[in-house]
Specification:
It comes from Candidatus Falkowbacteria bacterium RIFOXYA2_FULL_47_9. This is Xylose isomerase-like TIM barrel domain-containing protein. With 242 residues, the chain is α/β, with parallel strands linked by helices. The chain is 35% helix and 14% strand. An eight-stranded parallel beta sheet has the order 1-8-7-6-5-4-3-2.
Length: 242
């Protein structure tokens, strides 16, 4: 099992930037990592990142801003941002650059203008695009794209998790990696703390029980208070899958 964290998992910790988040991941022995570049106005670090900064990881992805943040940018701003991602993907030799599906992408041909290995993520119940097998099939038909299968997002639509298996059965050969996280279902869905929690805290094991394959890298998208929580989470998952 190849497992690691999104760097966004560590941003709730005091004084942790992306480089420190990468170091924490390495110290934890993670084999894979996702670099979160989710805020368009905070990507200077990505321009400065060097290949040696991310050495030792067997799978590396970059997570771009969500569709809502991309939609409000001007064409010039989008071009500049996409150019940064394309340059970083080549300079750092990353495996995938992840995008959320959205109307700003139009027919998705815009992504073909930039030399980067694109993956498109399925969406949760707050979205209308990229939420079903049919919707993702239409998106993936528009380019040489991979798919990132977010199991948390599947759970928001189908608490039996059959949707996760449907996605995997339909696109197994195009799935680049999984996103994995738990819910705090004691909180309302409009509370940010409802989303992207740790399994050792919330223990919604049905999500873990329905991971379709362990041959695909797993990226944990969680909110962690400190490095010790990250260590506990990895230990919890390793024990669960024994």
């Amino acid at each position: 099992m190849q497992i690691g964290f999104s760097t966004s998992s560590f941003y709730t910790m005091p004084e942790v930037d992306t480089k420190r988040a990468i170091s924490v991941s390495r110290e934890l022995g993670c084999e894979v990592i996702e670099l979160s570049a989710s805020r368009p106005n905070r990507i200077e670090w990505l321009k400065q990142l060097k290949r040696q900064d991310i050495a030792g990881f067997s799978f590396i992805s970059i997570h771009t801003p969500n569709a809502q943040r991309m939609a409000v940018l001007s064409k010039k701003e989008r071009h500049e941002l996409l150019s940064v991602f394309a340059d970083a993907s080549q300079r750092l030799n990353v495996d995938r650059v992840l995008f959320h599906p959205g109307e700003w992408l139009g027919d998705y041909s815009i992504l073909k203008n930039y030399n980067m290995p694109v993956t498109i993520e399925n969406m949760d119940c707050r979205n209308e695009i990229g939420t079903t097998v049919e919707s993702m099939r239409e998106i993936l038909a528009r380019g040489d794209f991979k798919m990132t299968l977010d199991l948390n997002h599947c759970y928001t639509h189908d608490k039996t998790m059959q949707l996760a298996h449907d996605f995997y059965n339909a696109f197994a050969d195009r799935i680049s990696h999984f996103h994995l996280s738990d819910f705090n279902e004691t909180l309302p869905v409009d509370d940010p703390s409802h989303w992207h929690n740790s399994f050792f805290k919330c223990k919604n094991n049905i999500i873990l029980e329905n991971i379709p394959s362990f041959d695909v890298p797993i990226i944990l998208e969680e909110s962690l208070l400190n490095g010790e929580e990250a260590k506990i989470e990895l230990e919890y998952l390793k024990n669960f899958f024994k």
